[in-house]
Amino acid sequence: MxxxxxxxxxxxxxxxxxxxxxxxxxxxxxxxxxxxAIDAGATHIKLIIKDAGKSLIQVIDNGKGMNPFxxxxxxxxxxxxxxxxxxxxxxxxTKGFRGEALASIAAIAQVELKTKRADDIVxxxxxxxxxxxxxxxxxxxxxxxxxxxxxxxxxxxxxxNFLKNDQIEQxxxxxxxxxxxxxxxxxxxxxxxxxxxxxxxxxGNLIQRIKSLVGSYIQKELVAISEDxxxxxxxxxxxxxxxxxxxxxxxxxxxxxxxxxxxxxNHAIYEAYKDxxxxxxxxxxxxxxxxxxxxIDINIHPxxxxxxxxxxxxxxxxxxxxxxxxxxxxxxxxxxxFDSEMSLNIDAQSENRILTQPKVSYNQNYNPFNxxxxxxxxxxxxxxxxxxxxxxxxxxxxxQENTEVVxxxxxxxxxxxxxxxxxxxxxxxxxxxxxxxxxxxxxxxxDQQRAHERIVYEHYLKTKKETKITSQQLLFPEQMELSxxxxxxxxxxxxxxxxxxxxxxVFGKNSIVINGTPSDLKDFKIIETIEGVLETFKLNTIDSKxxxxxxxxxxxxxxxxxxxxxxxxxxxxxLILEHLFNCENPLxxxxxxxxxxxxxxxxxxxxxxx
Length: 610
Ligand code: ADP
Ligand code: MG
Hints:
Blueprint: H1 11-22, H2 26-39, E1 44-50, E2 56-61, H3 68-73, H4 101-107, E3 110-116, E4 123-129, E5 132-139, E6 144-150, H5 157-162, H6 166-181, E7 188-193, E8 196-201, H7 206-214, E9 222-228, E10 233-239, E11 251-255, E12 258-260, H8 263-272, E13 285-290, E14 296-297, E15 308-309, H9 312-329, H10 386-392, H11 408-420, E16 427-430, E17 434-439, E18 442-447, H12 448-461, E19 471-481, H13 484-492, H14 494-499, E20 503-506, E21 511-518, H15 526-542, H16 548-560, H17 570-581, E22 596-599, H18 601-609
Parallel strand pairs: 1-7, 11-13
Antiparallel strand pairs: 1-2, 2-6, 3-4, 3-6, 4-5, 7-8, 9-10, 10-13, 11-12, 14-15, 16-17, 17-18, 18-22, 19-21, 20-21
Helix pairs in contact: 1-4, 2-6, 6-13, 8-9, 12-16, 12-17, 15-16
The structure holds adenosine-5'-diphosphate and magnesium ion (MG).
Magnesium ion is lined by residues 32, 35-36, 96, 101.
């Protein structure tokens, strides 16, 4: 008997392991299949999914098809028709080249392939199940290739359990479709999900494609970029500074028509907008860089969204200058003279925000000597010591001690008392960012934005079906166009939005009509606000599971709270402090960020003893 302990992994096990790198979720399969169809020269590509791709992903293309041998071979690892030597890596013009995708997908799903070349009389039908070859036979089918991928991760339950809910998985899928559909405007893409048409993108030019994905309003917000050097060509669109948005959506870089992420180039864009947009707002861009493949190394990341250039500094400089020039031409450039402090995201409409009166319940059972230092983002861990904080503020002592819900009326009285009480304690605003005050000789520094975010969050969080916020009807209902992605999301959140006082209805393809909003948001630009809320909502779901209502409350709070840079008058400061100390948890924002800092008087004494 041999003592050897090392053996080569069986092929299907190796493929399953490799699959972990290529296929993280249904959208990874979508990406690979769409890219293969494009590489095969298809002009029409249809994607059909069920249950966000968990039970079915089907891609039908009219590309060149495969012969019987290739049809079988394509599922082998490192089987590719796209490169033959490592030199080819530096002259890539196709999306795929590693020859890993199909082997990996077949290892973790039930896969069927039907394919036929235009010159063949019959097509080929192949069935593979969890990496096991089942059958190959002749079949009738149209020219091109169809891949059917069923029950993804059926044999890797750990991966299957790791998948997020359908809404999130579908969002990833739409992201992938957008990333291939934007650069390939000559290809007709159709996308159906659970039997519904989600996208139909007929061939056209770039701006038409962008409009059909984002909404036609986008056209008037974009400026064309075009720059030619012998090293790189840049073309595409960037947004006008005045239409910058609060989220980072619609930021696309394509290098040789491949979607890439490159923080360095992203930085170049922000550099070009530096004095034109406010802190916390973001330009949109759809930019295409074209350069000799030998100056690019795409292969540094297995899923190939990262890219390295041999001369990235030149690309950086060129980007900055061409964007600046284009914005200048659109007379958005130098003529705009933002006062940098004023531009700190101060919404004129938030002037009155602070006078909103949150209804806050009072937790009588709370143990004042317990856990007031948790910084976890978990709500239940954030139970702060409300009473403790309250007693610190003798000035606020006259607010409710025993009431369940502080009524607006009493609040008003408390407010008046606060006003009349000639400064029981002193406070001031520091750098339009912090509120500095004292208690028991200690110094307390409160972050104004986070404090108000907490107040607004709790205000909305209290609402339930029974106690829904009444919405104020808009004089002129507003129509809002959304991306396919956001449309799916907002449709799924209609009920949650309704409870919070938002009244809207679906109005045609990818758009809604907003009829009413919560009355305290009546002075906000409602479309922008909803856009921001959806963005934050999505961000919040990336690495944690938060219940929808809670998430929406967080997103609304984040997007509507007063911001840094807003001057607060004395009354506003008092109100913020009062509302804050009536919160269940005045110490941390919902996402676990500290709201206040305390400097111990004894530490101050100690310092001056030295
Ligand atoms: P890669 O794309 O990296 O070459 P894949 O595993 O994705 O590797 O595909 C393997 C091979 O199968 C491709 O190189 C191509 O020759 C063939 N192939 C895959 N999809 C299609 C398709 N839709 N139409 C024609 N050929 C295809
Ligand atoms: Mg491929």
